[in-house]
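Incident log, structure service

09:12 report received: a user says their structure output differs between two submissions of the same chain.
09:20 pulled the input from the user's history:
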Amino acid sequence: MKYVFLLNRFSLKDNTEKLKEKLENISKRRKINYVIEVNDKDNSTEDILSKYKNTKNVIIAVGGDGTINRVLNSIVGTKNVLGYIPYGTGNDFYKTNKEILENGINKIDLVKINDKHFINIACFGIDADIGNNNDIVHSKIIPKKQRYNMSLLYNFIKYKPRELEILINDKDIKDDFTTVVVCNGRYYGGGYKIGYNAKLDDGLLDIYLVPKINKLKTAKLIMSMKKGEHEKSKDITKYQTNKLTVRSKDIIDCNIDGEVLSSKEFNIELIEKGIEVYYDKYLINEVGKIKTKK
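09:34 re-ran on a clean worker, output below:
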């Protein structure tokens, strides 16, 4: 089985060549069959990975959550295994895996949303606006650890609740929502533990609905997520399900694992043990010694 390292040049920038050299040395020392691919404006992730669709390989996404999501959507339906080395801004899927997965290959739940897939978290409302604010989240000026917080502050000031319809567990819920979060994993926003007890392989999604609340309550709720204390809040309603629909009168944005999906209707369905994920903490630790520039 071949190990295909897919490097996201947009995340790595000046560290691409240094990281390629590091991966080559590690792979040779481990005596593994490997190849290193780099995406850029002329070579998309989808085009690169189409070469490997008919064989079984470990496709290792080297980048952030968005890179993992693009690799995931490129290999769904093939025999390939999803691997990753966290090298982005938030690295939230990695934070979940450190708490849940065994070293090696794990079968985890996959989630389909319209014609796309995700494995960590999808969100609507203020959370989607925060994650989708590319001017701040991918800013070269703001330090990586502060980008989510800066986007949070910006969107907190200007945000207005969304009128949504949620179809879940035979209920039809219509309301103005501050946020709706769909969790397969646990973390989003660079360390906010929204899916406190979520598991990647239990056949269930943890859903958090927050109706329209004032900004003071919103601020307190967001801060409580750092410690997972939000589940005690009376402003949150939590459900568990394997299927739901989110509807809006107007086109809205959803953030799925760092990527943007826009629609008036989102049909979400869990596929139990639908993808194999390769977690290699030793490889991640070795490569993590290289630091990207802020």
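09:41 both user submissions now match this output. Likely a transient worker issue. Closing.
09:42 reviewer note: The domain at 121-270 is CATH 2.60.200.40 (Tumour Suppressor Smad4). The chain has two domains: 2-110+275-287, 121-270.
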